[in-house]
Write a structure and sequence with these properties.
CATH superfamily of chain A: ABC transporter involved in vitamin B12 uptake, BtuC
Bound molecules: adenosine-5'-triphosphate, magnesium ion
CATH class of the largest domain in chain B: Alpha Beta
Number of domains of chain A: 1
Radius of gyration of chain A: 19 Å
Order of helices and strands of chain A: HHHHHHHHHHHH
Strand content of chain B: 15-25%
Number of strands of chain B: 20
Shape of chain B: globular
CATH architecture of chain A: Orthogonal Bundle
Number of strands of chain A: 0
Oligomer: heterodimer
CATH superfamily of the largest domain in chain B: P-loop containing nucleotide triphosphate hydrolases
Largest interface: A-B, 22 and 32 residues
CATH topology of chain A: ABC transporter involved in vitamin B12 uptake, BtuC
Shape of chain A: globular
Structural class of chain B: alpha/beta
């Protein structure tokens, strides 16, 4: 088969629509984590938050038949997870990693249990009725627009506003920020919650827009890829968007190449591998916020 | 107007570790005076002022500002009362520009919270003109000198219209000239009606600038006196609780063979230009070789090149005859180098680590601290740490306390102790007594002399001219990356040294001869 023939799909708009869709969850997750880490708080529970957002919105959508309620409930999960993490990592100045690990494990477990108890399946929920699914506009998801806006707006806020300056100050050196009269706890709490909220919205996208159901492993490591993307982007939301596009392209590519040409396993792993390799390449040069991962305590 | 701008009554502070830093302190500052707060390391000076500024919370006690009882829970509260503070360890965001640092927390904005950079710049520039304190506004602070950083801290405080200014050991990081400028500035501020609290443990400075002084010792007030009515000796006695020796005894000693040799060393600085330009000297066993000079003339880079932290472009460094140019620090330590670094927080200790962990930094991979399976031997480490603490009289809540719980002087003692316990052949000490009180300074100077007497080679780099001249057997004066000359302290006048610090070569001062003489007699 000719290579040109093989890559014909690159000519069709559906390929690009799909690519943009695949950009959404990891970009939202990465931008959310950037906000959080810029304030000095690492949240490695992204994967879990995405899953829980997807799970709860599916559940609520299934039983209420309301898209709005489904979305809102998914976001409430994000809020709750954000406040939980902020409570532990910011206000109690506890470890920033442990509870994230716990959340990731919890999300996997609770998802499987609920799937089985509710629908008798370990793998997937039934498809959501059409009225609960987020409608596409000319084949494009509104989440795509949302993601572009969120990335751009985050950049503006971080680089051009007083809140951004304070956010960065708190993440670089909380002691100095406090001495300048900034409420470190407040800034960190807000950043953590907003970050978690964005990540949960990625979960809502996965269930209500992309799949129209909850499946086991619905996030498929995207939360972790988003974490890697944060480093790749050097904590810049616009670069994170670029990274999201690269991932989206690769993912769509791996879906579009007919099977049999390249071993499937390699194809599936491709987007993850390339994203990780790129991130690793950038890791050496990246300079994280000065106080990232370090709890702040007053004496 | 109330007599006192500030009154603190019965202040008690017990830190989480159990350290009682303040034991019922009464402290009052009159409106419009410069009030000195004098005390040794760990006396509680910083703690007292941090409470006033709201960064620490008191265990007990009341605060009155201009006669009114106030609760200060955060710096925001303090600022609202017109209180500003320049901290002992600067509180600037390193990656932010000077401008961003000054306005942070009180940023001028246009609608929707967008920063109004022009307005910010205009306001800060006006402030710089009014005060005469100038700094490059667009440079990230991490690229600026210590003097410039301090000016930013002061601008930050004045930007918020503070009229009660607290300065925590502001001169510890300044050159003599910068100190003079700071004093002139503070006097101007006083004339404008500002009230100033000036923390120090340098007696000379208390005499030079303060109206009244309060002396703290171990968390208690020894007394508050009019500066004009006490002598330095009396102040010293109040501070230390015993007579202080201002002179150190230095025995004559024959130097031995060279242990550290630097040959035509060229080192680039942060900006890429040469900071060290062809420096050569040698330090013999049983000798202290001092490097004097105004800070920023290449001393830092020179030390970094010698201690393996920076690669020289050209030239050689020999350690006990072995060429170690460009070798890594752990390699050098294994060959008998001890290093007391200039920036003790960046390179001397890890604040979050415990005293015990810090006491073996650099030794952690060596037996007996690590066994052959790569496991740290806890009990050996703890024994060692106890020995360091005991031998060097380090005041700490315990060996498991984080290094951050120690006062500056005790942190430095910990570093010095660790380096000496390594039994080094060559010791490089950069600004070893900066920020330390009389007792700790005396202790560390004695220790350096003892090392010399034991036959080790000591390279002493210090911006404190008195210190260099007092301790060194020979002194090299650095100016713009070059040695202006090498002299014996007893053979030069202060004026001659001053000229060399300003860029005049020794041979031009003495008309040849002298330099060769010093070098031949000394080494
Ligand atoms: N964060 C902390 N946690 C526990 N103990 C502390 C802390 N900060 C200071 N201390 C202890 O409180 C006492 C007073 O320290 P403080 O820093 O106020 O002294 P200081 O007079 O400013 O000394 P220096 O001249 O060294 O700056 C010391 O014994 C110190 O070890
Ligand atoms: Mg202090």
């Amino acid at each position: 088969m000719q290579v040109a023939e093989l890559l014909r799909f690159l000519l069709y708009p559906t390929f690009y629509a799909g690519m943009l869709r695949m950009m959404v969850p990891i970009t939202l997750g990465a931008v959310g984590e950037i906000i959080s880490e810029r304030s000095g708080v690492v949240n490695i529970g992204l994967e879990g938050i995405m899953m829980l957002g997807a799970l709860v919105s599916t559940y609520v959508g299934h039983f209420t038949g309301s898209m709005v309620l489904a979305m809102v409930s998914g976001l409430v999960v994000g809020l709750a997870a954000g406040f939980l993490h902020a409570g532990i990592a910011v206000n109690l100045a506890g470890d920033q990693i442990i509870d994230g690990v716990g959340l990731n494990l919890f999300a996997v477990g609770i998802g499987e249990v609920l799937l089985y108890l509710t629908w008798g399946s370990f793998a997937t929920s039934p498809q959501l009725p059409p009225e609960v699914r987020v409608p596409s506009i000319h084949g494009f998801s509104p989440f795509v627009v949302l993601t572009l806006l969120v990335a751009a707006a985050t950049w503006v806020v971080v680089e051009k506003t007083r809140w951004g300056l304070r956010l960065k100050a708190v993440g670089e050196d909380p002691v100095a920020a406090e001495a300048a009269g900034i409420d470190v706890f407040k800034v960190r709490t807000i950043a953590t919650v907003v970050g978690s909220l964005l990540t949960a919205s990625a979960g809502v996208f996965l269930s209500l827009d992309w799949l129209g159901a909850y499946t086991k492993n619905i996030s498929a490591g995207r939360g972790f890829i988003a974490l890697a993307l944060v480093v790749f982007s050097r904590w810049n939301p616009l670069t994170a968007l670029l990274g999201g596009l690269i991932f989206g392209f690769l993912f769509q590519l791996s879906q579009s190449i007919p099977s049999g040409v390249v071993p499937d396993q390699i194809l599936w792993a491709l987007p993850y591998l390339v994203t990780l390799l790129i991130s690793a390449g950038f890791l050496a040069k990246a300079r994280p916020p000065g106080a990232v991962g370090r709890p702040y305590k007053r004496v | 107007m109330a007599e006192y701008a500030i009154e603190m009554r019965g202040m008690v502070k017990i830190y989480p570790g159990g350290t009682v830093a303040l034991k019922g302190v009464d402290f009052a500052v009159r409106e419009g005076e410069i009030h000195g707060l004098l005390g040794e390391n760990g006396a509680g000076k910083t703690t007292l002022m941090e409470i006033l500024y709201g960064t620490r919370s008191p265990t007990e006690g009341e605060i009155f500002v201009r006669g009114r009882r106030v609760e200060i829970r955060s710096p925001r509260d303090a600022m609202a009362l017109g209180i500003g503070m320049v901290h002992q360890h600067f509180t600037l965001i390193p990656v932010f520009t000077a401008l961003e640092n000054v306005v942070l927390g009180d940023e001028p904005v246009r609608s929707a919270g967008l920063l109004d950079v022009q307005a910010a710049r205009a306001r800060v520039e006006e402030l710089m003109d009014q005060t005469g304190l100038h700094v490059p506004l667009d440079e990230p602070v991490e690229n600026l000198s210590t003097g410039e950083r301090q000016r930013i801290e002061i601008l930050k405080m004045l930007y918020r219209n503070a009229d009660i200014l607290i300065l925590d050991e502001p001169t510890a990081v300044l050159t003599p000239l910068e100190t003079k400028e700071l004093f002139a500035f503070l006097k101007r501020m006083k004339e404008e009606g500002k009230t100033i609290v000036f923390i120090t443990h340098k007696l000379r400075e208390v005499k030079a600038i303060t109206d009244r002084v309060t002396v703290l010792r171990r968390g208690e007030v020894v007394g508050t006196v009019d500066t004009a009515e006490v002598s330095m000796e009396e102040l010293a006695r109040m501070m230390v609780g015993r007579e202080v020796l201002f002179e150190l005894e230095k025995k004559p000693r024959e130097p031995e063979e060279p242990k550290l040799t630097v040959e035509d060393l060229w080192v680039r600085g942060e900006g890429g230009d040469y900071a060290v330009k062809g420096v050569s000297f040698e330090v013999r066993g049983g000798e202290i070789f001092g490097i004097a000079g105004v800070e920023g003339n290449g001393q830092t880079e020179l030390v970094e090149a010698i201690t393996g932290l920076r690669l020289p472009d050209r030239g050689r460094v020999l350690l006990a005859g072995e060429d170690v140019t460009g070798a890594r620090p752990h390699h050098l330590y294994a060959r008998g180098l001890g290093h007391i670094p200039e920036d003790r927080h960046r390179r001397g200790i890890i604040l979050e680590f415990t005293v015990a962990e810090n006491s073996i930094l650099g030794l952690q991979r060596l037996p007996p601290f690590m066994n052959k399976w790569g496991v740290l031997q806890e009990s050996v480490v703890r024994d060692w740490a106890r020995k360091v603490v005991e031998r060097f009289e380090i005041d700490t809540p315990g060996i498991d306390a984080p290094a951050s719980a120690l006062s500056g002087g005790n942190q430095q003692k910990l570093i010095v102790g660790r380096e000496i316990m390594k039994d080094p052949k060559v010791v490089v000490a950069a600004q070893p007594t900066r920020g330390l009180d009389v007792a700790a300074t005396e202790y560390i100077r004695r220790t350096l002399l003892r090392m010399r007497d034991e036959g080790r080679a000591v390279l002493l780099v210090s911006a404190d001219l008195d210190e260099v001249l007092m301790l060194s057997d020979r002194v090299g004066v650095m100016y713009e990356g070059e040695l202006m000359g090498v002299v014996r302290p007893e053979e030069v006048t202060l004026e001659e040294i001053g000229m060399m610090m300003g860029g005049v070569r020794l041979e031009d001062i003495k008309g040849g001869g002298a330099k060769a003489e010093a070098e031949s007699t000394g080494g």
